[in-house]
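Ticket #4471: structure output looks truncated?

Reporter: J.K.
Steps to reproduce: submitted the chain below (155 residues) through the standard prediction queue, then opened the result file.
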Amino acid sequence: MISIAARHGLRGDAAEDIYQATCVTLLERLELLRDHRSLAAWVATTVARKCWRRRAERGLAELPVDQPSDAPLLETALVDARQMDAVRQALEEIPEPCRSLLRQLFVEELAHADVARRHGIAAGSVGVYRRRCLDRLATRLRARGWLPPEEGGET
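Returned output as attached by the reporter:
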């Protein structure tokens, strides 16, 4: 987990904080894990999201001090910041309930059952709604030039 945080530009205490937060989240949500084979992917995704969130909250100040000024890490951080800003803006442009559904799934990291309860839909329908909402978000990002044009009608 610390190596994943390091790949996202976090070192030392920051990476260890992400490690600890991910372990806590894992313990809180362990009962939701349906297939143990998906644990590694879940951990990697959760660490990445926590890193993005931390870097977004703290801006570029979170970059390691010992990196030379021409380090590729800085360029990566700038691209990541631009991408996060583009996603944030595109998210604001899509209508409700898509906006809140995507925030609950990807920012708050709520379980499907909790999202379903908040939206008054069946838990099994959350995936269908998520796909539709992601398609709307992708359309906005495509319009901004952040995604390539659709080929053959598929996203």
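Triage note (M.O.): checked the attachment and the full token line is present. The first helix runs from residue 2 to 7.
Status: closed, working as intended.
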